[in-house]
Sequence to fold (205 residues):
Amino acid sequence: MRFITQTTLFLFLVLLIGANESAVARSPNASPFMATTGKTTQPIGHHDFCMRHASECKANAKGGQRVKLTPEAWNMLVEVNDTVNAMIKPETDQDLFGKAEVWAYPTEAGDCEDFALLKRRMLAERGWPIGGLLITVVRQSSGDGHAVLTVLTDRGDLVLDNLEGEINLWNGTPYRFLKRQSTANAGEWVSIDDGRAAVVGSLRK
Fold:
């Protein structure tokens, strides 16, 4: 696993986010924080997951708490992202379950939303607020759907992705962001206003 040092590389991370924030003055859609536009439909796979794991799909009175992105917090994100990406083999739901869409915690293999679910659980077990760990649906440049984990921090909304080893700001990815879990209720979903003029910034490990 690769870890950010407590000095030079973390400073680089902060400078990258700062450069991204300065871009907001040039483009109102360059914010490191996503904008949402209200409730939308829950993915069917997540609905079925919630039927099996009701305690993980309930209202959250504290809402979307943002974690202060200290070097220690960043290292924890890197560790969890690297660990899950290394230990889980990518497999489609059709191959694993004989169905097109099944959301489940993976043990050896899984598809994109399974990676995201496991990262979410691991971070929650390490004390990260559940309202700031949001499964997010995006569209790839190919047009295919994909799921990632969005982590809310005071420096921006970070994306943990099984297709990309680096942790990026949401607007430093090539994806079109569609919807994510509500910060106030893990069983509800909200639309994302992805009106970026350009892809901006990424955080390097």
Summary: The chain has one domain: 8-192. The longest strand covers residues 145-153. Confidence is low (pLDDT under 50) at residues 3-9, 19-28, 197-205. The domain at 8-192 is CATH 3.10.620 (C8orf32 fold).
